[in-house]
Design brief:
It is a single chain. With 511 residues, this protein is an alpha/beta fold. α7 packs parallel to α10, α8 runs parallel beside α9 and α11 crosses α13.
Length: 511
């Protein structure tokens, strides 16, 4: 396909909101219309309700997420012995006079229960009282999590393995860089017997490339005012009002060869969507997710047969580990499910020297972001000079994958500096509405959030050639990905892990 330059931009003010939103939070049919070149739209400087674009571009932590905000007020998580479940539930609630409870059931080896304390009750005192019970294993805080975005040169492949409108080497340069298109796809395009679970802001259920492969739709959301956890399933329950989840899902599994939009890495793979964020609104444009909701979604993804769980959200290590989240992750890994999580976008600050949670937990494949340097003249694949590690990408990843790096320049319209992909058609904040080009709702993104689903899609391809769903253990997957990655010259292991994702090599090693 031609190396045309396209910019899927929102209006100037809207794109600012979209980019920064990805930091704080950090689309059917056949088309025969001509492929139009969209002229870059100048982007005004300024800031959105989430954070400034420049801070987002530099990978800094959004001001809306100060360290004090990471702990959910008036809630505590209690881990108890399952053998004492019946009496533990009653005694635990009674000890602290809990006004509301959410029992997450047995996750891993123990039961988990989230308690809402009466107004004015000291969480420290309540925890001390609970620890006196022989039924209680531990008492921990409940945390918030937010999406982890901030909204060796190889020869140009000779052909495009799919016919989607924007599957060329500029709009989806990242698929060529990691040898997905055409090399890996010549071996496998995934399997409908394998499912990737995306735990995020939801999915645009009207998106042609995603709706047909949604096998599970579930929202798990705790109302921050009432602390009531509500679980809903079925059509309409995961409709995305942010765009982050739609973008992530599309990068992992968007359907290909339908002459529409973009292609996902594992495009013949099924999708499970779990919405753990409230809807975006003008008064709450950047909601956080409750880790109790995240843990429930993880556990349900395991029960529903997911082979890979994609978690493009998190919080820096200074926010604290979360016992409930960690238990859910460990239980998923023990069940043979590979968990892939965004490594974080805080580099080079103190939090940027280490992975975010949950990427930091043992056994999780922590994905950092790579980028490409080019001549900054024209948007063509031949302009690419080398791979780099994105300036914002945290240290300590398992490996890196393309996440783009616009270097904080709000006027940077070069698609080689971004990850171009799907957005949602139902933005909860009107300023964030995407532009619609040739019937495609799309936008530009940067972040480890975008790198992570490319690895999730690659794992789905690896399992497809190896033997099907969960045929590779999480340890097998980590080993193959690490040994097949391409080392980026002049960057230490601390920044790139094993190197940049090479899907063709990983698939070949999994055969």
């Amino acid at each position: 396909m031609p190396n045309s330059r396209r910019l899927f931009a929102r209006s100037p003010a809207a794109l600012i909101a979209a980019i920064s939103l990805a930091s704080c939070g950090g689309s059917g049919g056949s088309h025969a219309v001509p492929q139009t070149t969209i002229a870059p739209t100048p982007i005004a400087s300024g800031s959105s309700t989430c954070t400034s674009v420049l801070r987002r571009g530099a990978g800094r932590l959004a001001p809306a997420y100060a360290s004090a905000s990471w702990v959910v007020p008036n809630q505590i998580a209690v881990t108890y012995r399952p053998s004492a479940a019946s009496r533990a539930a009653q005694s635990i609630d009674r000890v602290v006079n809990a006004v509301k409870t959410v029992d997450l059931g047995v996750i891993g080896a123990n039961g988990h229960r989230v308690l809402t304390l009466p107004s004015g009750t000291s969480a420290t005192s309540a925890a001390a009282a609970l620890r006196q019970s022989a039924d209680v294993v531990s008492v921990d805080p409940v945390h918030y999590r937010r999406p982890s975005s901030y909204p060796n040169p190889t020869a140009l492949p000779a052909n495009d393995a799919v016919n989607d409108t924007f599957s060329d080497d500029v709009d989806q340069w990242y698929l060529y860089r990691t040898a997905v298109n055409p090399t890996a796809w010549q071996t496998t395009q995934g399997s409908t017997g394998i499912a990737v679970a995306v735990i995020d802001t939801g999915v645009d259920e009207t998106n042609t490339d995603l709706s047909g492969k949604l096998t599970v739709r579930e929202s798990v959301i705790t109302d921050p005012t009432t602390n009531v956890q509500t679980v809903k399933t079925g059509p309409g329950t995961v409709q995305d009002t942010d765009g982050h989840g739609t973008n992530v899902a599309g990068l992992a599994v968007a359907q290909a060869n339908n002459r529409y939009g973009f292609a996902g890495v594992g495009y013949n793979t099924q999708l499970q969507a779990y919405k753990v964020f409230q809807n975006d609104t003008s008064t709450n444009p950047c909601p956080s997710a409750n880790t109790a909701d995240e843990a429930r979604a993880i556990a349900d993804a395991v029960k529903n047969g997911a082979s890979v769980i994609n978690i493009s959200l998190g919080a820096p290590q200074s926010s604290g580990a979360d016992a409930t989240e960690q238990a859910a992750v460990e239980a998923a890994i023990a069940a043979g499910v590979t968990v892939v999580a965004a490594n974080g976008n805080e580099y080079p600050g103190s939090d940027g020297q280490q992975p975010d949670f949950p990427a930091a937990y043992a056994g999780v494949i922590a994905v950092g972001a790579s980028a490409v340097s080019d001549d900054n003249v024209g948007a063509s694949y031949s302009a690419i000079k080398a791979d780099t590690v994105a300036s914002y990408s945290n240290s300590g990843p398992t490996l890196v994958a393309p996440g783009g790096d616009a270097n904080g320049n709000v006027n940077d319209s070069d698609p080689l500096h971004w990850i171009t992909g799907y957005d949602t058609t139902t933005a909860g904040v009107s300023a964030n509405a995407c532009s619609n080009q040739a019937g495609v709702c799309a936008a530009l993104f940067n972040g480890t959030s975008q790198a992570t689903p490319q690895v999730a899609g690659a794992i789905a391809l690896m399992m497809a050639v190896h033997g099907g769903a969960r045929s590779l253990t999480p340890a097998n997957v980590a080993s193959i990905l690490s040994s097949s990655s391409d080392v980026i010259p002049n960057f230490p292991t601390s920044r790139q892990g094993a190197g940049r994702l090479d899907v063709a090599k990983a698939v070949a090693a999994s055969h």
